[in-house]
Amino acid sequence: MRIRVIEVDGTPEEIARVPQLMEALGKSSNSATGQSPLDAVPQSDELPAEVATALEVRSPRDPLRLAMESFLRETMAWGDVDARVGLSKATKTGLSNIVRLHRRGSGVGAFVYLAVVGSNIQYRLPRDEPIEGLAFVKVRDVQPDTPYGLAMRLTLESRPEAVEVARRAYERTLSGITEGVAATSDARATEVKERHSSSLMSRPDVISVGVEQGGKLVVRVDGTVSGAGQGLPEMLEGVPVEIVVERDRVRKLPAIGNGPVNP
């Protein structure tokens, strides 16, 4: 048996233009369409600096990183999509490992959460979203009122479907359906906050725990405390957690009642 190691250095678009290379990487053209998985990726500007930094947890030649980069470029090319990365003391880069896609002016949270480490996507779509005919997207095993009901693993092969489902979630951000989902997600986040607030606030670095519109927990930590933010989760019961590091020492808020404590 002979094993040949191939090193490739190039953008997803450049790689997609070399069919022999795509075949060698095990990503040959789709037999039904004759198209490479990256044929439809549009040319666009470079990714935001914080997004590019977050992706550095993977090698530039990692096929999963290529899939994530091309997915982000295509969705951001829609014109009103922002990619955001939170802060985290738990990573070497100081950035969260989750990239969030927001539609500007929607008034709700992210419509896509992309976990860089596992190359997994969670969509702001309900569990009962029709998925007949889709090969990669799955219904998550979560409570019925959890707003992020669909997920998939992003690869070069699944990327076209990932973009298709992201488009659905994107369009829902300005629809009446999203209003109900947003209200449900806020209520769900508040419930999760109430269950976990005491344990989070028991940490010496945590200043406050709050709920942001769109169904997201916001944990503020004191950056002057050694190891601030380390070990804090990026998800709690399916609800995304944003960690905000305060660089100046601030007074720790007391835990009061069961209502939300907004930072």
Structure report:
- By secondary structure, this protein is an alpha+beta fold.
- It folds into two domains: 45-175; 179-246.
- 27% of the residues lie in helices and 21% in strands.
- It is built from six helices and ten strands.
- It has helices at 12-16, 19-24, 49-54, 63-76, 159-172, 176-201; strands at 81-87, 95-103, 112-115, 120-123, 138-139, 150-153, 206-212, 216-222, 235-236, 239-246.
- A six-stranded antiparallel sheet has the order 1-2-3-4-6-5. It has a four-stranded mixed sheet with strand order 7-8-10-9.
- The radius of gyration is 20 Å and the shape is globular.
- It starts with 11 loop residues before the first helix and ends in a 17-residue tail after the last strand.
Proportion in helices = 25-40%
Alpha-beta classification: alpha+beta
pLDDT averaged residue by residue: 76
Task: Say how many strands there are.
Answer: 10
Q: Radius of gyration over alpha carbons?
A: 20 Å
In spatial order, strands of the major sheet run 1-2-3-4-6-5
- How is the biggest beta sheet arranged? 6 strands, antiparallel
